[in-house]
Structures are given as structure tokens and as C-alpha cells.
Input
Amino acid sequence: MEIIKTLGEFIIDQQLEYPDATGELTSLFSSIRLAAKILHREVNKAGLADITGAAGADNVQGEQQQKLDVYANERFKNALAQRGVVCGIASEEEEQFVRFEETRNLDGKYVVLIDPLDGSSNIDVNVSVGTIFSVFRRVSPLGSHVTQEDFLQPGNRQVAAGYVIYGSSTMLVYSTGNGVNGFTYDPTIGVFCLSHPNMKTPAGGTIYSINEGNYVHFPDGVKKYIKYCQEEDKSTQRPYSSRYIGSLVSDFHRNLIKGGIYLYPSTSRHPDGKLRLLYECNPMAFLIEQAGGKALAGVGKRILDIQPTELHQRCPLFVGSPDMVDKLEEFIKQHG
Ligand code: P6P
Output
């Protein structure tokens, strides 16, 4: 008979390993799990419901908000406020950070930073999208209102990070700093089941993921690396395969499992890169390092060591198999 370990059972087992664990992080994860199940339902019927298509309003990024973006943001915000362990959130969909004003939330120990539905422009064309989240312990005193400083912490202080990928199946992949574990949602019984225990990314890979449409604007080191990936060399399995879905969670998830590198460098349109440090780069960097990989914003610039200054600041992202990130770093060091 198959042995199913559900996400709930896994979290409780993990909590038992840490006697001082108070169960608050467990409660936080149960709210993420609930919101993920609801988003699974909505994303998988988006083509049918009137919830697809732009909601009209533009978000803080100046991007036209898809209705599902708005819905996802509300769902995760409400779920995270319910349990009283979170004192506030920052979201791609919210210009300012959100204070949870209920008394029970003022004593919340954690803050959560979230991209509720990354890659949402793919919804209307039935391509996978995802939720990305990052969890910190607050630095402001318990009982007080959450402050901006609670959200502007370097990624090396994350207590947890993860993503939900709404793809051919819905998966929750997360880490609390003791390795990465993946859970696949079984909608017939409504539970996430442990399907990818202790995920490790291969040291090397044969996949590179980048939007080559921006090639002419890339830094020279990145251009040279792309040409390196395309050169024939049987000993290093080159040319590599170019795989780019245009949905960070999907490209990251595939490369995590198969080995590969995802690159979003600075371009003319995005001089600091396009991706957001706090709720895209930091959580992905936390996860990839827990899985044995690397995440840099430039030569010697470990993503997790960047001291944030603004909620929605962008940064370049080079993330994936350690040998591939090292090779890219060499090219940037040599060619700028
Ligand atoms: P481009 C989606 O908007 C996103 O933030 C990531 O999910 C994705 O990897 C990237 O932007 C795609 O950006 O400029 O290649 O379309």
C-alpha cells in the first residue's frame, strides 16, 4: 500500500525535531497551504470563469493587473492575517507594506513577502504560473505595528521561503533552512503529498534560460556566456538547450530538478534587472542554496547578502547549478 506523507504531517514531524518550535511557523505554513489550494482551483478554471483578463487597474509595477493577480493577492493576504502569527506583508501587488491591525496580529512574530501570482501574463495562454513567498522574523518589538525595517532585511536572514507552481500539477516547494522538499497536490483528496524529498540541484546542467530577445542590451560577459553555451563541445555537452518559459517559477523549478541556469541581467529597459529582490530573487536564492546551487546578482554579489533599501527594488538574477553560475561569473569577471 502506498505510504502518503502529507504536508501537514511533514511539518509536524519537522516541528518535533525542534523542541523550541512554538508551532507558529507551522500555523503560517497552514495558511499558505490553504491559499495555495484555493488558487489551484481558480487558476485551473481561469479559462472558464470570468476571472481571467486584465482587472483594469495597474499595479505598483505599472503592469496591467490580471484579475487573478488581484484575487491571489487578497487570498494570500487574508489567509496570512487569519492565524495571528504574521504582523504584516509586502506584496508585488501592494505599493506599501500592509500592516495587520488586529490585536492578535500585533504580537505576530513573522513578516511575509510575496509575489502572489508571478508570470500572470501567461494565464491567458495557459502557461504555468506561480506564487513566491519569503518569511522573516520581525525586527520590531512584539505588540507594536510592523515597520518598513521588518521587510528590508537581507535574504540571509530568511527563516523560510518557497513557491507554489500551478502547472501540469500543482506543487508546493519550500525550505526552512534544512533542505528543500516538494509536495504535489492531489485534488481528489485535497492534500499536498511529499513527492520530492530533500531536493538537490545537479552541480552542472545543460539548460540555460534567458530572454535572448534582449541580447543586444546584455552586458558583454553575459553575451560571451551565451555564445559559450551555444558552442560545440562534446566534453561539456555543449551546445546546451535553451529553455525559457517566461515564468520564473516554472523555469526555476525545471532547472532545479534537471540542472541549469536562469539569467535575468540588466538590460536597457531594466538597468537593475527586472526581477524584484525581496519577493522573487531572495526566496529563489534561499531555495537554490539549500539545494546546493548558487544565486548571484553579479561578480561576487551573493543575492542573500544584499542589504535592501526599497520594497520593490530590482536586481539582476543569475541562479542555478553551481558549476554553471561559476562559469557565468568567470565570463562577467573577464568581460564585464
Ligand atoms: P521577460 C514574469 O513577468 C517575470 O517576472 C518572471 O516570471 C519571468 O521569468 C520574467 O518576468 C519574464 O520577463 O522580460 O523575459 O518577459
Q: What stands out?
A: The chain has a mean pLDDT of 93. Residues 24-43 form the longest helix (20 residues). The CA atoms of residues 117 and 286 lie 19 Å apart. Residues 7-196 form a domain with the Fructose-1,6-Bisphosphatase; Chain A, domain 1 fold (CATH 3.30.540.10).
